[in-house]
Amino acid sequence: MANIKSQKKRILTNAKRAERNKAVKSELKTRVKHAVKVAGEPEQGEEALRLAVKRLDMAAAKGVIHPNQAARRKSRLMKKVNAAG
Fold first, then answer.
1. Percentage of the chain modeled with pLDDT above 70
2. What's the rounded Cα separation, in Å, for the pair 74 and 50?
3. Cα dihedral: 51, 53, 54, 58 (round 10)
4. Residue 21 burial (CB < 10 Å; 0-12/13-18/19+)?
5. Would you tell me how many other CB atoms lie within 10 Å of the CB of residue 35?
6. Domain extents for the chain?
7. Residue 1, C-beta contacts closer than 8 angstroms, at least 6 positions apart
8. CA-CA distance, 18 to 10, in Å (whole number)?
9. pTM for this structure?
10. Virtual CA dihedral for 77, 78, 84, 85, nearest 10 degrees?
């Protein structure tokens, strides 16, 4: 354990940030899985895809994932959706 006060604070803030990031990443996985699952259905599929892409963009904007990773995930998601429907 650190003895320096600023380092103790940094440990606490890192833990808070990790919890937030974990929640965002979990939601990303859920949205993408749902978008792939309902890809064949016309109305539900479009809405699920839109939400998944939106969440990927928001995660990249907040710094949870790298912007290039968001672009790669969106590209792969689009490929899967287009192949299914």
1. 100
2. 10
3. 140
4. middle
5. 25
6. 28-84
7. 8
8. 12
9. 0.84
10. 140
